[in-house]
Amino acid sequence: MLSRSWAGHYHRGVPWNERSPEFAEFWTERHLCVLSTVRADGTVHATPVGATLDLETGIARVICSGTSHKARTIRKAGVASVSVTQVDGRRWSTLEGRAVVSDDPERVEDAVRRYAKRYREPRENPQRVVIEITVTKVVGNAG
User: Fold this and answer.
1) What are phi and psi of 110, to 5 degrees?
2) Runs of H (alpha helix) within the chain
């Protein structure tokens, strides 16, 4: 059900600490997302993912295998422009930003902990990495 406080409004450039409670709730509810990356030939690669958002820092995280297309594409670029979108009925939100891939054990462990809190404990994956997205823009109607 849509909340009157944000239904139909598209928010751009609002600082993280001024986001509505509905926005925070939307990004902690269990929703699958779509991560979009750009291939070397300029076409878009979109794939379903689980994503988490740190509302304090504006960092979104996606865990995946280091051999996945998304991780290889971002790693090859060094830093890549990406977007993460989630939809629930008429509510939606897209996070745009700059992504990097990390295989640092502490950063991966932190991302796994965040993923498990939002979704469920992920399966074991010795090749797991984390895609860290520094969010630069938010669009949508979810707070």
Assistant:
1) -65, -45
2) 21-26, 69-77, 105-118
Q: Which residue, 129, 9, 19, is CA-closest to 75?
A: 129
Give the residue among 98, 141, 143 at the shortest CA–CA distance from 10. 141
Domain presence at residue 9: no
Distance CA 86, CA 26 (A): 9
Residue 34, in any domain of the structure:
yes
Q: What is the pLDDT of residues 40-79, one digit of tens each?
A: 899 999 999 999 999 989 999 999 999 999 999 999 999 9
- The pTM (predicted TM-score) of the whole model is 0.88
Residues 53, 95 contacting (CB under 8 angstroms)? yes
What CATH code is carried by the domain that includes residue 123?
Answer: 2.30.110.10
